[in-house]
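thoughts on these tokens:
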Amino acid sequence: MDRSTYWLRAAWNDFLAFLPDLLWGLAILVVGYFIARLLGGIARPLLHRVGFDRLVDRLGLAVRADRTEQGSRWGASIVFWVTMLIVVMYAADAWRLGAVASGIAAIIAYLPHVLAAAVIFGAALLFGNWVRGRMLETGGASAPGDLSVASQRPLVAGAIRAGILALGAFMALRELQIAEEIVTLAFSLTLGAIALAAALAFGLGSRDVAGRVMRRWYEERLGKRAGLSGGEDDSQIIQP
């Protein structure tokens, strides 16, 4: 009976010693939640004013019907959850949960790499869409004999956009520090495959055009020879 009483008294004393830390951690959570809500509410109209919604729409990331404010909504959510992550870290530290606080601190320290990777890939996506649009808009009218080239312009524009996106994706993965050697090797292989595919596409798609150019050059050369020699046999060769 004395041992049970001693154990209960020790547990109660430990609880009383931990109670201030418990209340302090709860206060951090409550106050931090309202601060996170406030920052998210400030970030949403601010992002809308600076044109973040238009940027998300131009990147092709807006998938909902009410996409006019989808980007600012995403940004506000990110601000809210990042703030809450910091709040939980301080609450865990107040509750003497050192492992949890250290893990959350490592995640927070990694967030700048995630932000930089998102900016890199977003820039690559924006640039790839711009290049593809410019190639399709300013391609110009094609001659009657160049229909094969005109029909392949969307394919070439899409291939260039895919190459730009692949480059941006590999740069983003390197920024995220995910298996850098494997990413570098995969990037080299992908770049070589894209170059080989582009060479094959240009070669196979332009063989008719190259054949017509060579035939025209050959006929003009034979015509000049026939004009200089004045022979009848050569003129018969030239005539179809």
Summary: The radius of gyration is 33 Å. The first helix runs from residue 2 to 49. Confidence is low (pLDDT under 50) at residues 141-145, 231-240.
